[in-house]
Write a structure and sequence with these properties.
The chain is about 30% helix and about 15% strand. With about 240 residues, the chain is α+β, with helices and mostly antiparallel strands.
Length: about 240
């Protein structure tokens, strides 16, 4: 089923920065990572077996792939957050006028991985949190760095962690990540052809240049949290 969907959408591969020429892509720096400390403020113990995090950090292809390869994550879905349901469509979100950010809804088992660890990976290898309304070659508010917290506890952990990292001066500039409330119902999954994109198209120019390095950074910096086989949206 997934192969049929991808065949239908073979033409519009102008997602993220894929419309850029090979020459332009080669001129851009590949993704790098930051070695950062773990959060000092630990997440409060919860009895639940499932928790959700919604994160935005540039093109959702790479962020989704990163968490699909993270142990303890049971689902990672590309989508849109920050705008309305009516304009949660890629061709409109790409205008940068909808309020949406390309985001990933991450469902995880807090008994296996903490929310703090999810954020450590986010700030370390998923993106550069000091870039305002852009990530690498992608520019616009739809590529902004944002944490859409699902509870007061998530807000506390995220806000404290940002303050901790800024105080430690682990980045060359201050963190610009937004910490904003967002009901889970206000996350809108992206079109099917965006799901599992990095897994299905590892040789695609943008993926090879900008997203595969994220996975290698995850493997190198967080070896105990890396899994080789991703948990995907569509299964064969």
């Amino acid at each position: 089923m997934m192969k049929q969907k991808l065949k239908k959408y073979t033409v519009p591969l102008l997602f993220c920065a894929a419309a850029m020429t090979t020459q332009t892509l080669s001129a851009q720096a590949a993704e790098s990572a930051f070695r950062i400390p773990a959060p000092k403020a630990a997440s409060a113990a919860i009895a639940a077996t499932t928790e959700t995090a919604i994160l935005a950090g540039g093109c959702f292809w790479g962020v989704q792939a990163l968490y699909q390869h993270t142990l303890g994550v049971t689902s990672a879905v590309s989508g849109y957050a920050g705008g309305s349901k009516e304009n949660a469509h890629y061709d409109v979100v790409g205008s940068g006028t909808t309020g949406h950010a390309e985001s990933v809804k991450i469902t995880f088992d807090p008994r296996k991985i903490s929310y703090g660890k999810i954020l450590q990976i986010y700030f370390s290898v998923a993106h550069d949190p000091t870039q305002l309304n852009r990530q690498g070659p992608d520019t616009g508010s739809q590529y902004r760095s944002a944490i859409f917290y699902q509870s007061d506890e998530q807000k506390r952990v995220a806000s404290d962690y940002i303050a901790q990292l800024d105080a430690a001066k682990v980045y060359p500039a201050r963190i610009v990540t937004q910490v904003a409330s967002l009901p889970v119902a206000a996350f809108y999954p992206a079109e099917d052809y965006h799901q599992d994109f990095a897994t299905l198209h590892p040789q695609q120019g943008y993926i090879a240049r900008y997203d595969l390095p994220k996975l290698e950074n995850l493997k190198q910096l967080f070896p105990s949290d890396y899994r080789a086989t991703p948990v995907t949206v569509f299964r064969n």
